[in-house]
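Weekly modeling sync, notes
Attendees: S.R. (lead), two postdocs, one rotation student

Agenda item 3: backlog of single-chain predictions. S.R. asked that every request posted to the team notebook include the full sequence so nobody has to chase files. The rotation student volunteered to paste the first one in as an example of the format we agreed on. Action items at the bottom.

Example entry:
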Amino acid sequence: MHLICLDLEGVLTPEIWIAFSEMTGIPELRKTTRDEPDYDKLMRFRIELLRKNGLKLTDIKKVVEGIEPFPGAVQFTADLRKLTELVILSDTYEDFARPLMAKLNYPTLFCNSLITDSGGAITGYRLRQEEGKKMAVRAFKSMNAQVFAAGDSFNDLGMIREADGGCLFRAPEAIRRQFGDIPCFDVYDDLLLQIKRFLQATRGQLNV
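Predicted structure, as returned to the notebook:
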């Protein structure tokens, strides 16, 4: 069995927090896991900014509803699912990811959840699991799955390293330089070709 594990934001869709930053005019909300490797620090920073500006979960949901997948992402995931199984491993939140899953024709999603108060303000978050992406890949491998992983940020490195094959996709230059041993691709055709080669190498059933 083969599984392809992909990050969501930055790989298949624009970054939700960057879109929200543009809508609210709060530049500090542009910071993502591409910029801050400490996820807890990043989320506490975001939650405090939301509190100071009186912004709630419903405000983010409105922005998410208007986000479209990157050009070519829907066809890419459709082509990929014809070859093998696809799982999205994301540090986004199920509370506002569903509209994006609908636009991508509902791939399997593993992500986190938010904590809100009675007024709808975000007060915290719940990780599905510590190092959730890496641990998901490890669990899939324990079921004798061959896993390929791809992502664009610091929080994707664990799953890429843990997988049987993997790469960066559209990663910022700083990450490319720091982790130059990991191949990086920038277009879906090249990523699909890399995945086909992985499948061919591990089961010898596909022609590239």
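Discussion: group reviewed the output briefly. The mean pLDDT is 93.
Action items: rotation student to repeat for the remaining queue; S.R. to check formatting next week.
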